[in-house]
Amino acid sequence: MAQKVDVLRIIKEDILRIMGETKRARISLSSIKEEINASDFYISKAISALEDESLIKSEKDFIKITEKGQKRAENIAKRHLSIENYFRKTRSIDKAHRVTDILEHYISEEVANNITELSTLKGSGVPLIKLEINKECIIADIMLEDSKLLERIISMGIFPGERIKVMSETSNAVIVKVKGKKIALDREIAKGVMVFRCEKL
């Protein structure tokens, strides 16, 4: 079962990330709308919520970040860059950025920290289908070109930094367990899920 995505939370984080990356205290609404793929309704709702939390202030066609918001924005931007740098080892800058944009909205702070730690390991891992039954490992990467398929897999809880165990196999699927949930992965998809054996960690 896919995780539910909190659209409002995602847009709020994206606004703060953009302000954290640009390091500008003030940014135009038009710039925000160009960067974020969402309706004006959701963007306006996110801005109102950020104002209620005292993270930003609206000034006509601009938004200004507060001192409290600046700290949050810097943390979000730092986390984004840390994750993106990890994926740049196996992808172009643009592809690493796209994967990070998808991934960061699904993962916890703990998983984000795990991804940072993975960057210290050598190699890119081995395909999930080569893992022994009942062996637990940690996901290193998901090498899928189709961004919609990638997001669907990530929404199921299968993403870098998360622990995964192969429970059984069939002729066309690999049954895995992630956070107590059993998931059947097509063998072709499983070939693209790269893992580090836990004894390596």
From TrEMBL:
GO MF terms, alphabetically ordered: DNA-binding transcription factor activity; protein dimerization activity; transition metal ion binding
Annotated SMART domains: FeoA (SM00899), HTH_DTXR (SM00529)
Identification of the protein by name: Ferrous iron transporter FeoA-like domain-containing protein
SUPFAM superfamilies recorded: C-terminal domain of transcriptional repressors, Winged helix' DNA-binding domain
Keywords annotated in UniProt: Iron
Domain Ferrous iron transporter FeoA-like: 126-197
Annotated organism of origin: Aerophobetes bacterium
Sequence intervals crossing the membrane: none
Pfam family, one: FeoA
